[in-house]
């Protein structure tokens, strides 16, 4: 497999060169005052929680914001078409496909990234431009009714015969975030993947693949995971109380809230080299919005503990590092935050360019 790691100098600078919207005189109070004279805004996101968040924002500030849930590809299409038609109806978008957002929206000038002045010291620089608002953890999980602790301690164990056909996850061919995960591992964490192999098997990895990550992805696919069409289906295969087969799998932390309804999902903390990975959602403001101050205020609101709380209870982590997840978050991921693989938006262009390569490797290796 030949992954296209080489990026041009221009591509390397894509993320770094998006100009944040100017805010020289835009203190929060000035933004609030100006927003009072603007039209209502429409906000898109891939989570249904955006409806609740928009209502709470409207109540807090005496403004009008309407939240709309849509999948990332739909949001991309809507924002692109409105920009091309010069008919802006979507004011703010929270996009859970960072590579596509950078490639198809930011680089074309359809949207802008804006970082509030009072957030510059609270959000790590790697998440500032373009602005990442929230990170969604995808983690390895097991059934607590079948095991006292997670039955795997190293991701390479998932490539062994014991787990043949016993791994549940969404199909990478229909889930771009998974191929982005592969590419992020290869680009930034390949040494950790190789070290995990040596820790598990007692000798260095020898492979004809282009990276330790590629060798892992190939071996994982060859072990024929149960591929699902949704996160909920994967969670059901892993954590159903009456499940007869022993599955481990990869799911979002949001699915752990089903434990209150009888599911038996447990977090595989301590797994080497990572217990999962964080996937970013960008906060974007449409160029040409008729309500720029209201749009900015909504971005600011979503960067606060109050604003992000409806998503935080599902384990989604704000990039504002001044507060933690709420105590009623179901997975317990807050205690193991340091064990999650971080996403590097700086190489999102490489993720975008390499998606087909990783899909090809997966499809060629996955043979039932």
TrEMBL record:
<keyword id="KW-0732">Signal</keyword>
<dbReference type="Pfam" id="PF13531">
    <property type="entry name" value="SBP_bac_11"/>
</dbReference>
<feature type="signal peptide">
    <location>
        <begin position="1"/>
        <end position="22"/>
    </location>
</feature>
<protein>
    <submittedName>
        <fullName>ABC transporter substrate-binding protein</fullName>
    </submittedName>
</protein>
